[in-house]
């Protein structure tokens, strides 16, 4: 698989490049600014872009802006965004395009190598990976007449794990219940949130995240 890494911190960029190269990935380019990331990606057409959310030239949201542009122009491109702090807005923008193969992790999580590499594999496979802290922040927001408030504590917990991209089997293991119980809870969650049936698990997760982060009335 071919990757581009965008990170303005030289040591972190070099470390990620070495780590992923050692795992057998082909890091075809690196970038230190948002515009450089866009140029390199449109030219080289990698399978995955890993980018910091804050990059030069403005050091604000150049990385996520580049990622969103690239997703519009290259819908099959997988994107994994890294952030120093929880930014629910950035996560929602990334997820709200409705496509698969996206991830949002806090930088501190990549210090734990195995879960980070698992996230890379999941996103490349078309999955959705969202940092648990971001999910907690999104679910924890209280808005007027938000149907999430009508969910039981167990179903809210199930929703948080589901939004992280966990399969029913992993949720069952985490909550120490049967997969049948998980499936029943998920069905009830979607009924409560007014979400239509879908055969695409990841689109359902994205729909839940978009709904949770919508502005209140």
Write the layout of secondary structure elements.
Blueprint lengths: L1 E5 L3 H13 L3 E6 L2 H11 L3 E5 L9 H12 L4 E6 L4 H8 L6 E5 L6 H12 L3 E3 L1 H9 L12 H11 L4 H8 L3 H15 L7 H12 L5
Summarize the structure in words.
The protein has 217 residues and is α/β, with parallel strands linked by helices. The protein has 2 domains: 2-130, Response regulator (Rossmann fold, 3-Layer(aba) Sandwich); 136-212, Arc Repressor Mutant, subunit A, CATH 1.10.10.10. It has helices at residues 10-22, 34-44, 62-73, 88-95, 113-124, 132-140, 153-163, 168-175, 179-193, 201-212; strands at 2-6, 26-31, 48-52, 78-83, 102-106, 128-130. The protein has a 6-stranded parallel beta sheet with strand order 2-1-3-4-5-6, with helices on both faces. Strand 5 (102-106), helix 5 (113-124) and strand 6 (128-130) form a beta-alpha-beta unit. The longest helix has 15 residues, at 179-193. It is elongated. The relative contact order is 0.11. The model has no long low-confidence stretch (mean pLDDT 82). The modification 4-aspartylphosphate is found at residue 52. Residues 2-122 form the Response regulatory domain. Keywords: DNA-binding, Phosphoprotein, Transcription, Transcription regulation. It comes from Microlunatus spumicola.
